[in-house]
Amino acid sequence: MAQKAEQLGFDSETAKQIVQHTAMGAATMAINSEHSIATLRQNVTSKGGTTAAALNAFNEQGLTQTVADAMQACKDRAEEMAKTI
């Protein structure tokens, strides 16, 4: 995210802050809410807005499957490592 923010014209410090605040805001909202993460996402997604555009890009690029594959790879590697300990 920071790299793309810089490509879009933000200086490196601002790009870093964009990423940090985006992550912190999402995490804080998820931690402090009684609602599911899916509901929170729906609540902040305006039809035709910037979040909707980002989500569409994620879906078109298969982000859900990429994240699932990464999580599986992490689990598999952890199990392999546990056998050597």
How would you describe this structure to a colleague?
- By secondary structure, this protein is an all-alpha fold.
- The chain has two domains: 1-44, no CATH class; 48-85.
- It is 80% helix and 0% strand.
- The chain is built from five helices and no strands.
- The protein has helices at 2-7, 12-32, 37-44, 50-60, 63-84.
- It is extended and about 45 Å long.
- The model has no long low-confidence stretch (mean pLDDT 97).
Number of helices: 5
Outline, from the CA principal axes? Answer: extended
Order of helices and strands: HHHHH
Number of domains: 2
The structure class reads: mainly alpha
The percent range for helix content is over 70%
Poorly predicted runs of 5 or more residues: none
Task: Tell me the strand percentage band.
Answer: under 5%
SS elements, strand count: 0
Compute the CA-based radius of gyration: 17 Å
Distance between the termini: 36 Å
Sheet of most strands:
none
What is the arithmetic mean of pLDDT? 97
Helix/strand layout:
Elements: H1 2-7, H2 12-32, H3 37-44, H4 50-60, H5 63-84
Labels describing this entry:
85 residues, 2 domains, extended, mainly alpha, 5 helices
Structure summarized in a few sentences:
The chain is an all-alpha fold and 85 residues long. It has 5 helices and no strands.
